[in-house]
Amino acid sequence: MKTIKTKDEMRAVSAKLISQGRTFGLVPTMGYLHKGHISLIESSKKKCDATIISIFVNPIQFGPGEDYDKYPRDTQRDIEIALKEEVDFVFIPESKEMYLKNHLTYVNIEKMDKVMCGHFRENHFRGVSTVVLKLFNIIKPDYVFFGEKDFQQLTIIKKMVNDLDVDVKIVSCKTIREPDGLAMSSRNKYLSEKERKNAAILYNTILFAEKEIKKGCKDLEEIKKECLEILNQNEFIKKIDYFDFRDPETLDECESAHGSLHDILIASAVYIGETRLIDNKVVLL
Amino acid sequence: MKTIKTKDEMRAVSAKLISQGRTFGLVPTMGYLHKGHISLIESSKKKCDATIISIFVNPIQFGPGEDYDKYPRDTQRDIEIALKEEVDFVFIPESKEMYLKNHLTYVNIEKMDKVMCGHFRENHFRGVSTVVLKLFNIIKPDYVFFGEKDFQQLTIIKKMVNDLDVDVKIVSCKTIREPDGLAMSSRNKYLSEKERKNAAILYNTILFAEKEIKKGCKDLEEIKKECLEILNQNEFIKKIDYFDFRDPETLDECESAHGSLHDILIASAVYIGETRLIDNKVVLL
């Protein structure tokens, strides 16, 4: 396994892989790797001749007052995990290597980047789209692997790739969960023991909504009201950013589950104590 | 010469050129080719093994009330010119081939796209950056050729390429002019005979400003005032959008010519009758 710190070196490795006719996959991460990332790596290793992971805590996707500074980092541990998983290359640039001093260019996926998490995290998704497109341009992977846990991110990246004719295939991978249902996330580390024990409430409420949708008796407004009640009753939930029913492809809000022409994305963001957690599930109709 | 209408066919041609190890250049145009375009084609032919021109009047870079509908088009003549110039491929997609029905993704080069022409043509430059990035992604050229006549466009594209790590080299080519100094432009066709005879006033005023800067006696504010007077006195000039002195790299406004640490871009946009013309010159200091 080779660790790469500069764009130039990364470009040289990519050019060599291309000239050898080897397909290669990219798993973009912000490090602090967990089983979710490992499952992305496994997907890439199954599909591609070589696998690259990038580790970069992207400053431009964090807003003022968000957790950029305290975002968990443990490069040594990450590299050991990558080694164990037989990753071929780890691209781990510094911020000043990734961005010019006077960076001005941003990719905006309009409408989609304003709803759900985008409504609460201004400029978050333009930061994500911009860094992801930069990684695509530097690394030129055949396949890129994203987890469904960050469903809005996945939808936005797919839209960007289609709209801008980017020559890459996006592979979405199932959310990996703890035994109690909590979705794996680097931010779970922030939870106190008590908060952690209660954190599965988010996924359980999403499962409750799914069950109610499938029953087909109540309208979505009613189900949403019940879900908000469940969440509000839990003493560890300090704030609910949203609990939404949306079209998984366009992220438009669903009016009604009855006769819906598409599947329904149930997505939510809540604060357990100080920690913002997100989760989602697509109900296949 | 081959004429290509679909992205898929274009991608196949590009892949073949790459696999053959041939370098190739792209000359992006909106058609209605003139000597300015031909000089870009000649530059590409000198530098590259193969040359592709794209012809696409890009709807998203025109604002409401602008000349998208009446923009001059003559595909047959364009193809004859390309043939005569021994272009290898002409990519000429329709609008519905280039854009998905629900296109949402735009590339914004902040600050730079708000000044000069960007101040008067809202969303113009995000339309340009977006289509140009799409063309880069579809065609994957080694070199792309832009004229200096659209200087702000050139500066913005260079900035986008640097900021987004796009793997392409931008080549800027000198503005081609009519014998009286008028910069070649497809929009010159809009000018009446009388307007055409007076249109060189724009470039002559820019040359006057250059001379005054080089003399070094007056400050930029004074020179600007004199230039605006010259333009205002011409009965064919119906409106002056701007007459600016700027840093050619950042497009920041110049405070003073004395002791400037960079060259000075003189750039202007005026209406001759109903026709909006732009021109510029970089003063090397």
List keywords for this structure.
homodimer, Rossmann fold, 3-stranded antiparallel β-sheet, 2 domains, 38% helix, Pantoate--beta-alanine Ligase, Chain: A,domain 2
Brief account:
With 285 residues, chain A is an alpha/beta fold. Chain A has helices spanning 7-19, 35-47, 75-84, 95-98, 117-120, 124-139, 151-163, 193-198, 201-215, 220-233; strands spanning 2-4, 24-29, 50-55, 89-91, 105-109, 143-147, 169-173, 237-246, 264-272, 275-283.
What order do the helices and strands come in, and which of them pair?
2 copies of one chain form a homodimer.
Chain A: E1 2-4, H1 7-19, E2 24-29, H2 35-47, E3 50-55, H3 75-84, E4 89-91, H4 95-98, E5 105-109, H5 117-120, H6 124-139, E6 143-147, H7 151-163, E7 169-173, H8 193-198, H9 201-215, H10 220-233, E8 237-246, E9 264-272, E10 275-283
Parallel strand pairs in A: 1-4, 2-3, 2-6, 3-4, 6-7
Antiparallel strand pairs in A: 8-9, 9-10
Structural features, described:
Chain A has 285 residues and is α/β, with parallel strands linked by helices. Chain A folds into two domains: 2-173, HUPs (Rossmann fold), CATH 3.40.50; 186-283, 2-Layer Sandwich (Pantoate--beta-alanine Ligase, Chain: A,domain 2). Chain A has ten helices and ten strands. Chain A has helices at 7-19, 35-47, 75-84, 95-98, 117-120, 124-139, 151-163, 193-198, 201-215, 220-233; strands at residues 2-4, 24-29, 50-55, 89-91, 105-109, 143-147, 169-173, 237-246, 264-272, 275-283. In chain A, strands 1-4-3-2-6-7 form a six-stranded parallel sheet, sandwiched between helices. The first copy, chain A, has a three-stranded antiparallel sheet with strand order 8-9-10, with helices on one face. In chain A, strand 6 (143-147), helix 7 (151-163) and strand 7 (169-173) form a beta-alpha-beta unit. In chain A, helix 6 (124-139) packs across helix 7 and helix 9 (201-215) runs antiparallel to helix 10. The radius of gyration of chain A is 19 Å and the shape is globular. The model of chain A has no long low-confidence stretch (mean pLDDT 97). The A-B interface holds A 7, 11, 99-100, 102-112, 129-130, 133-134, 137-138, 140, 159-160, 162-167, 250 and B 7, 11, 99-100, 102-112, 129-130, 133-134, 137-138, 140, 159-160, 162-167, 250.
